UniProtKB/TrEMBL annotation:
This is Acyl-CoA thioesterase. Residues 23-135 form the HotDog ACOT-type domain. One of its GO terms (cellular component) is cytosol. Pfam families: 4HBT. Keywords: Hydrolase. It comes from Clostridium thermosuccinogenes.
């Protein structure tokens, strides 16, 4: 048996982190689109939506890691349909992949017309967060255990997305 010394104590702690499923940390957040959140056409402001996406994604990453997290990357964000004033916007955030200290989260956004009950998917985003310790340094996160076929597939695709992000970073953006 190996002795636990100051040198390898962090490695031992890392290996002891218990895996979690995406379901355990998923977040659903609903907001009402108020007049102050809209442009002159009565559509939800893109910046406001990006703020909500960041918050929903960070909550899921914090739940998974039990840490404060920082956003390090936001992939392209498509605006497929506008959300209108008076509609409910629901953001569903779920972990898709984890590395050593970083986590990829997907956020799907839906707009709901409360009068008709119609719900449409308006946006989808992939974001990367890093778990930080009390000194603000990257710190290890628990492994992710994908459960469904879709989660397993997304986990594999996430590796490719991560490589593209790191290549972009290496090129200096
Ligand atoms: C978060 C931060 C402390 C990490 O520091 P760092 O020097 O990049 O740390 P590392 O190089 O060790 O990277 C940490 C992890 O992030 C990943 N990472 C860093 N930049 C990344 C990027 N652009 N895209 C994807 N992953 C990235 C690394 O691959 C590593 O992942 P791993 O541990 O899972 O392998 C630093 O990047 C930072 O302060 N960024 C600004 C964060 C911020 O202000 N966000 C907005 C407000 S929350």
């Amino acid at each position: 048996m190996h002795e636990i010394t100051g040198d390898n104590i962090n490695l031992v702690k890392e290996n002891m982190l218990k895996g979690k499923t995406p379901r355990e940390s998923q977040v659903e957040m609903t907001e009402l689109v108020l007049p102050n959140d809209t442009n002159l056409l009565g559509n939800l402001l893109g910046g406001k939506l990006m703020h909500w996406i960041d918050i929903a994604g960070a909550m899921a990453a914090s739940r998974h890691s039990n840490r404060v997290v920082a956003t390090v990357a936001v992939d392209s964000l498509d605006f497929r349909h506008p959300a209108r004033m008076g509609e409910l916007v629901t953001l569903k955030a779920k972990l898709t992949w984890v590395g050593r200290t970083s986590m990829e989260v997907t956020v799907n956004v839906y707009a709901e017309n409360v009068k008709t009950g119609a719900i449409i998917k308006t946006n989808k985003a992939y974001m990367t967060f890093v778990a930080l310790d009390d000194e603000g340094k990257p710190t290890p996160v628990p492994p992710l255990i994908p459960e469904t076929d879709e989660e397993k597939e997304d986990y594999l695709k996430a590796e490719k997305r991560r490589n593209e992000r790191l290549a972009r970073k290496a090129r200096g953006y």
